[in-house]
Amino acid sequence: MWFLFGLVTLICFFAFNVYKKVNASWKGEKTSFDGVEFQYKINRDKDEISSVLIGIEGPNSFDFTLKRESAVDRFFKSIGLAKEHQIGHSEFDDLVYVVSDHNPLHREISNNSDIVNAVLRLFTSRSGVGVNIHEIRCNSGRIWFTYKPRLGFEEEDIDKLAKESVPSLKAISDNLKTQDPLTNSKWKDPFVFKAAIILAISSGLFLNGLAHFYRLNFIDIPFTLDTNQLLTQGALYSAGIVTLLILMTLFILGRSSRTHLVLVELLLVGSIGTFLTVSAQMRDLNMEMDESLAMGYEVEIHDMEIDSGRRYTNYNIYVDNWLDEKYTKRIEVPSSFYHSVNIGNNLLIKQREGYLDFRWVSEINKIH
Which of 18, 126, 347, 351 is deepest in the core (most CB within 10 A)? Predict the structure, then answer.
């Protein structure tokens, strides 16, 4: 059942993340500055402001991101994997990374000093509201900024922020609106959909693996005995899957200003998600497909303890180790079972061989 559930949740997470990656829309509060309507959205993390979005109406025919160039960007450019457009303006090229392979956009930025100056004003701003621009995004007829506030930024500072940023934002939008690379048709960037599918696989694996990781934390019985072997094989299979995803990414996306961004997320998020997902699915498959006969082992309880913290409480019993007589074995059990037994009681451990040859305990019963 859990193995099937894992496949279903993986498909659901995949579909959700395809939609999320392709659809970059967001909703915010509407207001205006100096006759220019704009929207803003404040994202919070544990009551702290984590980011601020400010956006206005933008050109319909462009889909791009302008972000601060990082050491990672420069590294991938140096090895020839990332191929970013350079406009010939040293300050802009050193500071801003153009996340787009759209030639009409490249020509417009390269030939339009108003756009270059407006972008630089935003990225080099030293305003008194305590924010740093993270990126400029244009998608689906809107152009917006994402800010990463410093400590002390409050919602009432939006007016100060708008005063400084909205005019530059409007200058970029107005200049781009004069150019329509595909008249009567909204430009569709195939890279976005290809990358969205790859990143959805990565994110889907991560979310699915995380969901099952937390699920397994609440299951005391049954449990796997050969955990190290399971995790080792899970790591090997995961490495193979991630390698295939990387090769698929390079084949599908090729050299681009955006390929390395997909690869970085795939390595950071996808590798963890793949390992968690593969390990959880192997654990479930090993139990659910197992048709071996259960072997019974009688053991005695030698000690009991409750291990608790702020967010957890574990109920542990220590019994004869039927796998190695030299040691006792700690077993985490449900609270109800823990309170139903005492030191000196005998238990019957039912062990099975496992469909994938990872031994596991299916039942623990008190011997009356």
Answer: 347
- For 239-272, write each residue's pLDDT tens digit: 999 999 888 888 888 777 878 888 888 888 888 8
pLDDT (tens digit per residue) in 338-366: 888 888 899 999 999 999 999 999 988 88
Of 353, 304, 367, which is closest to residue 331 (Cα–Cα)?
Answer: 304
Tell me if residue 202 falls in helix, strand or coil. Answer: helix
Given a contact cutoff of 8 angstroms between Cβ atoms, the answer to whether 244 and 311 are in contact is: no
DSSP H stretches of helix in 102-157 = 103-111, 113-123
* pLDDT for the residue numbered 217: 77
Please give the Cα distance from 105 to 112 (Å, whole number).
Answer: 10
pLDDT for 2 equals: 43
Q: Do you find a cis peptide bond into 59, omega within 30 degrees of 0?
A: no
Positive or negative CA dihedral for 211, 212, 213, 216? positive
* Residue 162 contacts residue 40 (beta carbons within 8 Å): yes
Q: Which CATH class is domain 295-366?
A: mainly beta
Q: Give residue 305's Cα distance to chain centre.
A: 37
**Domain layout of the chain by residue ranges:** 2-8+189-288, 34-177, 295-366
Dist. CA 243–CA 238, nearest whole Å: 8
Longest dimension (CA), the chain: 87
Query: Which residue type, as a one-letter code, is found at position 103?
Result: N
Number of residues assigned to the chain: 368
d(CA 267, CA 88): 32
* Gap between the terminal Cα atoms of the chain: 32
What's the mean pLDDT when you consider all of the chain? 81
Q: What is the percent of the chain where pLDDT is above 70?
A: 86
pTM: 0.68
Residue 79 tokens, joined: 């090895």
Measured CA to CA, the distance from residue 334 to residue 315 in angstroms comes to 7
Q: Percentages helix, strand, coil for the chain, rounded to the nearest 5?
A: 45, 25, 30
DSSP assignment of 70-90, as one string? -HHHHHHHHTTSB-----S-H
